[in-house]
Prior knowledge:
Number of domains of chain B: 1
CATH topology of chain A: Rossmann fold
Number of strands of chain B: 0
Number of domains of chain A: 1
Family (chain B): Belongs to the binding-protein-dependent transport system permease family. LivHM subfamily.
Helix content of chain A: 25-40%
GO molecular function (chain B): transmembrane transporter activity
Subcellular location (chain B): Cell membrane
Radius of gyration of chain A: 17 Å
Protein name (chain B): Branched-chain amino acid ABC transporter permease
Structural class of chain A: alpha/beta
Number of helices of chain B: 11
Keywords (chain B): Amino-acid transport, Cell membrane, Membrane, Transmembrane, Transmembrane helix, Transport
Oligomer: heterodimer
CATH architecture of chain B: Orthogonal Bundle
Structural class of chain B: mainly alpha
Amino acid sequence: MTAMLHVKDLRAYYGQVQALHGLEFELQEGSLTTLLGANGAGKTTTLRSICNMIRSTGSIEFEGKKLDNKSTESIVRLGIAHVPQGRGTFTTMTVEENLQLGAISRKDTKAIGDDIERMYAHFPVLKQRHTQQAGTLSGGEQQMLAVARALMLRPRLMLLDEPSFGLAPLIVRDLFKILGKINREDKVSILVVEQNAQLALELADKAYVIETGRIVMSGTADEIANNEDVRKSYLGY
Amino acid sequence: MELFTNQVLAGIATGAIYACMALAVVMIYQAIDHLNFAQGEMAMFSTFVAWQMMQWGIPYWGAFALTLIFSFVGGIVIERALFKPLAKAPVLTHVAGFIALFAIINSVAGLTWDFTIKQFPSPFGSSPFLGSQLISTHQAGMIGVTIILLVLLFIFFRYTRVGLAMRAAASMPESARLVGINTSWMIALGWGMAAAIGSIAGMLIAPVVFLEPNMMGGVLIYGFAAAVVGGLTSPLGAVIGGFLVGVFENLVGTYIPGVGNELKLPIALALIITVLVVKPNGLFGRAIVKRV
């Protein structure tokens, strides 16, 4: 297997403050990989560095192409969909316009309508609300809209930043089920950042643990889930 | 009563110009959250370009189309050269930039075409419209053009992918980048469209006020008033605001003794301040439905 995403010696900065200290990890094509870590460990920063939304040094390669000096929008156009923390919903636009925006960089405009229907099949609640202003959706619905919008890109890789944040546990279960399905059926590789370690490890095949801007542990999801330290620090039992 | 109808109609006709200017103001305000003080001068310059082309013998509609293209490209060039580098700068820097642009365009126009007033033709003529003494064909034409412009903009923003991308870039730039929209070019496109719309306003008003480098000064203030009344974020609001300001200005000038023509301009300013104090979002400002 070849690595689809290759991150080497990644250092990121917020002004003078260094948030990542030489982070290294890779993601295999077709895999669902999770980055675990406490608040402030650098998970969000890692995702933002991949999309070049913050100043960083080091090397990030996606399918053999260097991303370091590319703009956010051209990185997205390579097939990397980023669902940011806070979901990035276009709150003043309708649900359907949000989905169309997800596909705005695509050239094959004819297939977009079909893809919107596919999203409605994945997330029936979005169909019911398709003319509604997206800002009026509930948190869970907005998160589904954010995932659906990201999928409208027909991404090769999807970056998800804390998809469980602020959602009721039952809704989180549903959402993660759908993510698993998308990963398997639509062959979308997924890199998910989570504080809800238990859930993320159930879903993922590969996991990394970040502490203060460095990878401190890596392995298959099972290995990580059974590790004594991880259980104590992140799983709480 | 006839005086009243007359004044309302005349108000709607001049209001069409304010509406055009307000549309241009709103386009740039949406893109960069600032009022472009040089909008009027850009429109004036475009009108001179049209005049020059007609002097060279190009027929009206040919010159009109070429001027639209020139203004569109010019607007993009101004954004790329002057305002893109200022994208993250504070408000005052922008204001200084707008004033500099105002002074530069005004002087260059004066230098090139001097300050004597020039006749500018109307494509609609100036005979009575449908035999009515109240409104001329040129005034009717101005109203028609403004409404056509509004409809075209509505279709563009509502039904085209570029329009959707522009709206997204204006409302949530970071999310827009994350779906692959080049927000920086969307701003440039907004400038180009605003410059083109402004040039239409300039070419429509030049037959009325005569062409000279300072012709847009008053008009732009009314355009700002119209945009503020309409809410700064809504093209429809800008147009309705334009008509309201035109009618209001005429009625106050006619019926309130002592106002006359001399004090018409302060009315626009008073209107701006009143709206900002009483209803800061304007009549048609963006209403965002919030969950409670």
